[in-house]
User: What shape does this take?
Amino acid sequence: MTARAEPTADREAALERLRAEVDAALDRALAPERAWPATIHRAVRYSLFAGGKRVRPLLALAAGDAVGGRREETMPLGCAVEMIHTYSLIHDDLPAMDDDDLRRGKPTSHKVFGEAIAILAGDALLTRAFHLMAEVPEGWDGERVRRRLRAAALLGEACGTTGLIGGQVVDLESEGQRIDAGTLETLHRAKTGALLEACVRGGAILGGAAEDDLARLGRYASAIGLAFQVVDDVLDATEGAERLGKTAGKDQAAKKATYVSVHGLDRARAMAAELRAEALAAVAPLGPRGALLADLARLIVDRRS
Ligand code: GRG
Assistant: This one.
């Protein structure tokens, strides 16, 4: 079966409902705002509920759905990846890193709570993510526990020194440097792609995917993981702060190598479209089971913020 046409209003409404489910699960997974010590819980909730698109949790849930998994099994991963993503944004915005004042359309965590609390809010989110993954319900059989552990290990690798952190290190070291197209791809796959890939692969593992579906979803994940950052580079060069909810044009100002600076705007856009086609082709054999993943691939590439 071929990939379907643009998302309909019905499917967009379904995505919106799923976002609300993710928000409710995140709310349940966190200590209340007034719990002791209130400052850290206020800071954690401030960033987590600042209006993120929830792309990563949606990918985890969609991958689980695609292989017939149950939402209650994929939701902890959905919450964990959004917590990790939010931690990385809080830390990335710190003066010692990207030094930004605006994120998700609001003042950054350190601007509101100070640097020490912002660092701790990131740490708290990262810690809670793995705590949540380790909270296996009473009575689970060995197979479900094994799947949870496999997804947690994948997640740990994705945010470690060969994934998110490694990518961030190379990104910092590359500022003002000329880097070639191959190095840029490696950097983007680590900094942005690894976590997105872990959402899809982890969701599929938790859903009990057979090896052939796991391979298909792996190809999908690899394509959208890179596409996400290519589009981010395009948006940074073409959209304003109001739409992005963060400072625009920062890459150019910081003389960062991006898909736009290395390949040019037109080629970067064409590459994103090619990656979207690759992702759609990978999930086409899943038919209607892959519809949500197909919608998300389009959303990632066609987004304006
Ligand atoms: C601090 C370890 C550490 C890593 C930071 C996330 C990151 C690595 C850097 C941020 C720079 C950046 C903007 C990268 C582009 C990819 C990205 C993470 C974009 C933001 O993700 P969205 O668009 O954001 O999903 P929302 O706010 O919708 O969740």
User: Anything to note?
Assistant: The chain has a mean pLDDT of 93. The first strand starts at residue 102 and ends at 103. The radius of gyration is 19 Å.
